[in-house]
Amino acid sequence: MAFALCVVPYVVLAALNAGGYRYGASDQAFYQPAVLAQLDPVLFPRDTEVLSAQTRLTAADETMALLARVTGAPLHLVFAGLYVIALVVFAGGAWSIATRLYSHTWTAVALLAALTLRHAIARSGTNTLEGYFQPRLLAYALGAAAIAAFLRGRIALTFGLVLIAGAVHPTTAVWFAIWLLVATAIAVPALRGWTFGAMALAAAVAVWLLAGPLASRLVVMDAEWRRLLETKTYLFPLDWPAYAWIINLGYLVLIAWIYRLRAAASPVAPRERGLVLGSASLAAVFFGALVAQAAGIALAFQLQPARVFWMFDFLAVVYVVWLLAEGRLPSGVASGVSRNRRPEIVALVLTLLSVTRGVYVIIEAERPPVQLDIPVDDWGRVMAFARTTGKRSGWLADPMHAVRYGTSVRVAGERDVLVEAVKDAAIGMYDREVAVRTDERIRAASDFDALTAADARALGARYDLDYMVTEQQLDLPVAFTSGPLRVYRLD
Fold first, then answer.
1. What confidence tier does 491 reach under pLDDT thresholds 50, 70, 90?
2. What is the pLDDT of residue 374?
3. Cβ(85)–Cβ(133) under 8 Å?
4. What tens digit of pLDDT does each residue of 24-67 get?
């Protein structure tokens, strides 16, 4: 009953603290076109090379496309529904963990409030929450539910959830699988034979993948490839500044310290001990990946091992909330706070902090808290026109148009575009040719606002583009206008 009362406020506050729900934002610049291409293979004849660099590594696009076909729902509602599902699953997993590790229901409420306080994991390219649907968020939610199942001794459910997460976002699921396999081996002696067998099987599968499907990813990432990815600093932990190392390794110190406090206060259950000690396996994986990165192995960068600190962040938040609400406080602080009321006070303070911060973030963002579809503004109207053009049409736009106008041509217009600088550069980590392609196209249109009609026609001929969207007045045939935006024909 208590969870049922908390889940809707949790979803609302999580979305607000992430800047509100937005369709087509950020990573959806890849996922939404990838799903569209599954639903209509005619789309993106030029940009399939870019999209397939990542789609061939995951089944997320096929899964979401199947969901859209089965439900008949428009894609923007499918993404919104999956966003809510991910948050509810995550809240349910966190609540179940809380009721296993905490003594008071109010402490569980405090944990949900704390988890709405979205923040970045230092130099990992990851936030604890997003204001849009990202398969990684659903996989992370399933991982939290798997931790809860592990703490309750439901091992089959634990790894069933991890397998489902693997279909959604493989690398996130791999981190949870390693963590929970090691935790099971530590906490459940009767299952060690099974866990060691599972580890051996996983190692055999890994060898097969490295010798077969992933063999091409064992190449060395040369200096030029790395240069093309230099803006993606989260890919290169060896270049981290001191603060990133202090923050991320600080999670391990914090978890160990609070675990010792819990163990001193009362006996720690074997599964909790296994969970904490098992998390050390993720640290081992991270440092092993650093060795491979030092050797320049491309796969070690593509796996983005810094994201294991997302798991440490979650465990640290679980423990910090316990310390604040139920742990032993210094005598000077404890004398002024009733031990029985502390969980309620902590829950109230964290909830008020979340509400205040969420409202502030939305006000600062200067946008509505919920944006279910492409906004009906000048850019949205131009993109609506784009959707009426031939499905194989190609567009010329500012390389930074997704940042400038909020959504990319591929997302909002459902058409090929010369380049989408931010997302295409990120996809370049999976394929050197995509990285080179992106860099070459960004440079070709680097002075976009100064392009002349002749320049635009030359780019159109060079890259087989049919339309240009810009705010500049050019001597080209006008196909559509909305506010300052003009769409010119290039053919």
1. confident
2. 95
3. no
4. 988 899 999 999 999 999 999 999 999 999 988 888 899 999 99
H-helix segments, 18-169: 28-39, 48-55, 60-71, 75-101, 105-115, 135-151, 155-168
**Nearest C-alpha neighbor of 477 from the set 457, 463, 455, 450:** 457
Task: Supply φ then ψ for residue 399, to 5 degrees.
Answer: -50, -30
Contact 147, 93 (CB under 8 A): yes
Give residue 113's identity as a one-letter amino acid code: A
Secondary structure letter of residue 104 according to DSSP: -
**So what's the pLDDT on residue 154?**
97
How would you classify the pairing of strands 478-482 and 416-417? unpaired
CB 16 within 8 A of CB 361: yes
| Upper half-sphere CA count for residue 256 (Cβ side, 13 Å) | 7
DSSP annotation string for 425-443: HHHGGG-HHHHHHHHHHHH
Q: Which residues contact 231 (CB under 8 A, 6 or more apart)?
A: 425
| Encoded tokens for 63 | 């899964």
* Structural tokens at position 210: 């490295």
186 touches 199 (CB < 8 A): no
Q: Where are the beta strands (DSSP E) in 286-403?
A: 370-371, 394-396
Domain boundaries, the chain: 2-365, 378-489
